[in-house]
Amino acid sequence: MQDIILSTKGLKKKYNGNYVVNDLSIQIKRGEIYALIGKNGAGKTTFMKMITGLIHPNAGCFALFNDEYEEKIPIIYMHKVGAMIEETGLIMALSGYENLRAKSLCVGEKDEGYLYELLETVSLKEEKDKKVKNYSLGMKQRLGIALALVSRPELLILDEPINGLDPQGIAFVRNLIKELNEEGITILISSHILEEVVKVATKYGFIHKGKLVEELSSSELEECCKLSGKTLEEYYFELIGD
Question: Residue 185 — pLDDT band, cuts 50, 70, 90?
Answer without folding.
Answer: very high
